[in-house]
Give the backbone structure.
Amino acid sequence: MAILEAKNVSIRYITGDFKDIGLKEYVIRKLTGNYRVTEFWADKDVSFSLERGEMLGIIGSNGAGKSTLLKAVSGIMLPTQGWIRREGSVAALLELGSGFDGELTVRENAFLRGALLGYTRKFMNETYDQIIDFAELKEFEDRPFKQLSSGMKSRLAFSIACLVKPDILILDEVLSVGDEAFSQKSAQKMREVITGGATTILVSHTLTQVRELCTKVLWLHKGRQIEFGVDVQGICDRYEQFQNGELSILQS
Amino acid sequence: MLQRYKKNQFLFEELVKRDFKTKYKRTVLGMAWSVLSPLLYLLVMWLVFSRFFGHSTPHYTTYLFCGNLVFSFFNESTSQGMTALIGNADIFTKINVPKYLFLFSKNVQCLINFGLTLCVFCVFCVFDHITFTWRFLLLLYPICCLELLNLGIGLILSALYVFFRDMQYLWSVFTQLLMYASAIFYSVDNFSPQMQRLFLVNPVYMIIKYFRVIVIDGSMPSPAYHLLMAAEAFLAFGIGCWMYKKYNHQFLYYL
């Protein structure tokens, strides 16, 4: 049985004048008829399914709807049409620094992040040492978080998210952060997580990474699903050809 | 259900810790200051108003303190609660967490401050020769109503603030108005009975008056008074919860 299944998922996004305006401005624009809201489909008819232990790579150029799809997978957004079914917990590996507080120490941030990702205090007490060792931040654990370098911050974020065995792990453009040694170590850890039974979704612009790690690929273009399947190399090849302008995709 | 509650409890505790540490920056003075500032405000009000109203109102210092105590808790927790969602935007746009926890955790700070000020209030009562009776225990009731009201208004404001960023200024104007309408430094006895009834629309006034009836008059408000006060608090809380439920997945678009 699929651990994660998305069926005909379409997500409508709205943008427009309503951002960052105040009540006064809103009233004025409503009155003068200047209030515009544009809707667009960030994702249209996307379907995929994942079995336990598989790793899905999502590829596509900017604006393809990858991040929006991930938001729906993690439950932050609801699909406008279609449905997504999840069995088990979803842990998102956040972008660098978001959800961390600069004033708190590394240790406090680790616990806060752990709590945000839905782990229990007992679990965090048990795994904290492991996390800090893996992130190689032992001597920094009582320093304010803002004193860390950006590489160190992402190391911590990565360590918390993957030492904790979620059922579904989402990685959004993160493996490329950190120095050479750490990114090798993290790729190694990723493989361990996958073989350990975690289902993983990787969003990456680095095709070599997708080819190397993923067992399934989903190719999105401007919100539409171009291809989905287990033929990782084939899809990546065609995506590369498309990027080089050697292949055009038929828009239905 | 229980597991979910436990999970949220851990997150809630960590959020409270974070808010506490970032607010006071681990200084003792930071904590003392937040108790001191309502006291200084009280002093200013006392200096200005005691010559006008002090003769006609018995126990005027306590009378003033009742108003200040309640109003400053309301003011602090609503205006700080307003930023609870926006301030945590980079968290809830990335992780699916119950959003009301951010507001609740901010509210804990204000509740602690209120508790400390309440202790000072009791000391003041002693100096003002107030007799302590068993009825003081009843003060728990308006405190619960006030907390519920604060949470409710906080939920409403923090949601509105996501949509309209000038809410902060509008709210600060409104709280000024509310302060004058809450009879903090004057007495409503000079108004006509109809006018006095109109004051009861304001839940903050109701709570202040409850305090005064218990502490200064040594008596007890009527059952209807209890009901009305709770109804107003529950109404605010209900609207707040409804807004969070309705816009739970839409806040994202505004950030």
In short: The domain at 1-31+39-88+212-252 of chain A is CATH 3.40.50.300 (Rossmann fold). The helical segments of chain A are 23-32, 66-73, 106-116, 121-134, 150-162, 180-195, 207-213, 232-243.
